[in-house]
């Protein structure tokens, strides 16, 4: 069985499902999955502890979390330079930083619309944190980001099994993500694209609250504004999904027991090989 390991340093919405999306009904017979999570922390200390996964001898390592250019994730990558490794993050988006990842042999999937949360004590509590992640995950799921990650990880595993390692190098866009969902209604796809653009703006709003503003009232109101945009994006994504459901045209791509990806559109259709 193919061994794929996940290291979760800090949290973005994708952290919640990157591993689950490879075996959504727990029936695959071709892979083993192990995930090592450090909760919300992503310092060098957590990076050092991530070396534990090496003892399991994974064939592919996936590192998921925010801001891959910070010291913690950077230190973790140093430990896994000798293994095929893919970074899933909300950044870095700068071309030079992405080229550096490629030069060091890492694959990457950058998702700018998996945004920074309003992580300030003046605003965020556990309930608000969970609500934000639920809204973000709805946008990423409906609009194609989750499928993009799942398909790219499946493809990377297949390439390693075939003996030719091919890791993704993707700076994702709303257009690229929504293509993966095969929307039949162009208005539904337009809503999905809009939802992803809205989610992408959330990071900029929350960054101001987290790093630039000093006054309590401005921090709280700005962080709340970012979360309201995320909530509105989730509603728009839900509308897109409902439009596709009304036409019985929701694209579904479950895994077979063998790991092959199947496909169906009509609710009562049988999943068939692609």
Number of strands: 8
Question: What is the molecular shape?
Answer: globular
Count of helical stretches? 8
Order of helices and strands: EEHEHEHEHHEHHHEE
Oligomer: single chain
Organism: Candidatus Methanocrinis alkalitolerans
Family: Belongs to the MTD family.
Function: Catalyzes the reversible reduction of methenyl-H(4)MPT(+) to methylene-H(4)MPT.
Region (Disordered): 245-274
Can you tell me about this structure?
- It contains eight helices and eight strands.
- With 274 residues, the chain is of the alpha/beta class.
- The longest helix is centred in the last third of the chain and has 31 residues, at 216-246.
- It starts with a strand and ends with a strand.
- Strands 2-1-3-4-5-6 form a six-stranded parallel β-sheet, sandwiched between helices.
- It catalyses: 5,10-methylenetetrahydromethanopterin + oxidized coenzyme F420-(gamma-L-Glu)(n) + 2 H(+) = 5,10-methenyl-5,6,7,8-tetrahydromethanopterin + reduced coenzyme F420-(gamma-L-Glu)(n).
- It is an enzyme of class 1 (oxidoreductase).
- Its EC number is 1.5.98.1.
Task: Write a concise synopsis of the structure shown.
InterPro entries: MTD, MTD_sf. Catalyzes the reversible reduction of methenyl-H(4)MPT(+) to methylene-H(4)MPT. This protein is an alpha/beta fold.
What attributes characterize this protein structure?
45% helix, alpha/beta, 13% strand
């Amino acid at each position: 069985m193919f061994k794929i390991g996940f290291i979760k340093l800090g949290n973005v919405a994708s952290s919640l499902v990157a591993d689950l999306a490879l075996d959504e009904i727990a029936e695959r017979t071709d892979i083993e999955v192990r995930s090592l999570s450090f909760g919300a922390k992503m310092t060098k200390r957590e990076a050092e502890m991530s070396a534990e996964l090496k003892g399991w001898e994974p064939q592919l390592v996936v590192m998921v979390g925010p801001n891959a250019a910070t010291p913690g994730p950077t230190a973790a990558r140093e430990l896994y330079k000798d293994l095929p490794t893919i970074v899933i993050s909300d950044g870095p988006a700068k071309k030079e930083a992405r080229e550096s990842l490629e030069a060091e042999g890492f694959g990457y999937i950058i998702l700018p619309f998996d945004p920074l949360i309003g992580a300030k004590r003046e605003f965020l509590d556990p309930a608000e944190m969970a609500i934000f992640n639920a809204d973000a995950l709805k946008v990423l799921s409906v609009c194609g980001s989750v499928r993009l990650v799942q398909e790219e990880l499946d493809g990377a595993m297949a390439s390693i099994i075939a003996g030719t390692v091919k890791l993704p190098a993707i700076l994702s866009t709303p257009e690229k993500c929504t293509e993966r969902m095969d929307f039949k209604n162009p208005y539904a796809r337009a809503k999905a694209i809009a939802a992803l653009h809205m989610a992408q703006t959330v990071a900029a709003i929350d960054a101001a609250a987290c790093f630039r503003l000093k006054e309590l009232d401005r921090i709280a109101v700005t962080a709340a504004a970012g979360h309201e945009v995320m909530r509105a994006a989730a509603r728009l994504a839900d509308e897109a999904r409902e439009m596709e459901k009304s036409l019985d045209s929701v694209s579904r791509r479950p895994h077979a027991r063998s790991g092959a990806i199947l496909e169906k559109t009509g609710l009562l259709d049988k999943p068939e090989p692609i």
